[in-house]
């Protein structure tokens, strides 16, 4: 008999439909700061406000800010001379700053301070002439920004093949750094692989995978084993949201899906499902999670239990360039 069609009976013999809701989930301090930066810039300077790349990787956030007058561009050369441009939470390379300066753009840098911390580490170890192995996903904006700090010292390690093939100048002077939004477990696997080849590989001075990424993975792991289906609210281009799907599956969820909106849930996914886990990536406003809970409740999954593994209290000050112009 397939356990996919079984459901745990409750006291009156009916299948017990329930939702486990992960906490922490959703907005992290860096995303909150970046979104508020665009909102405040629109209020303070008036539209249009240009934003290089998606301010955070979430469709709903980008669409909402676009409606309010933000114009999202791929690069600074699309911004009219002298206009205001905001750099996204994922960070930019020094070359992008230089381009903006050349084109006389006014800039506000909404790079998350925890990404800036990785940039500082990259600069410091490049200055000390280390080979830096940057574990991250090829093509991700954050990785491009970090690698741009010291392109001659940094090599990207994305896949197991990369780790098996990468070469360094001096195996006694090599350090790994990482993208902030990776799976903790997979990153450690990659590090172990690299360390086999380079036993003197140094660790970063502090964790590069940020508190928010780690906390959301811990929370989804805590409930995944009890879930027939985990719904991760997040966009397809959100690295940390995609990692939550993978972590849920690795931690025992029988299925896991990434959705932007409640209406994307396919009723077929719920066939034979008893417990649904719900979580969301660090760039997702909680209103989208609430819509998912309402959708589930309308179909009989009205009982919600929050599974709390941490209480986050971190907040970051808005960028200095904006703060000085805010009306007090
Ligand atoms: S996920 Fe982490 S690094 Fe990225 S914006 Fe949020 S706190 Fe910053």
Main features:
alpha/beta; Cobalt-precorrin-4 Transmethylase, domain 1; 3 domains; five-stranded parallel sheet; four-stranded parallel sheet; 11 helices; 12 strands; 17% strand; disordered N terminus; binds iron/sulfur cluster
CATH class of the largest domain: Alpha Beta
CATH architecture assignment of the largest domain:
3-Layer(aba) Sandwich
Sheet with most strands: strand arrangement: 10-9-11-1-12
Average pLDDT, rounded to a whole number, is 95
Apparent shape: flat
Report on this structure.
This protein is α/β, with parallel strands linked by helices and 328 residues long. It folds into 3 domains: 14-27 and 211-308, Cobalt-precorrin-4 Transmethylase, domain 1 (3-Layer(aba) Sandwich), CATH 3.40.1010; 29-111 and 318-323, Rossmann fold (3-Layer(aba) Sandwich); 114-197, 4-hydroxy-3-methylbut-2-enyl diphosphate reductase, catalytic domain (Cobalt-precorrin-4 Transmethylase, domain 1, 3-Layer(aba) Sandwich). The chain has 11 helices and 12 strands. Strands 10-9-11-1-12 form a 5-stranded parallel β-sheet, sandwiched between helices. Strands 3-2-4-5 form a 4-stranded parallel β-sheet, sandwiched between helices. Helix 9 (239-250) links the parallel strand 9 (229-233) and strand 10. It starts with 17 loop residues before the first strand and ends in a 5-residue tail after the last helix. The structure holds iron/sulfur cluster. Iron/sulfur cluster is lined by residues 28-31, 89, 112, 114-115, 180-181, 210, 212-213, 240, 282. Residues 28-31, 89, 112, 114-115, 180-181, 210, 212-213, 240, 282 line the site of iron/sulfur cluster (SF4). Keywords: 4Fe-4S, Iron, Iron-sulfur, Isoprene biosynthesis, Metal-binding, Oxidoreductase. Its cofactor is [4Fe-4S] cluster. It is an enzyme of class 1 (oxidoreductase).
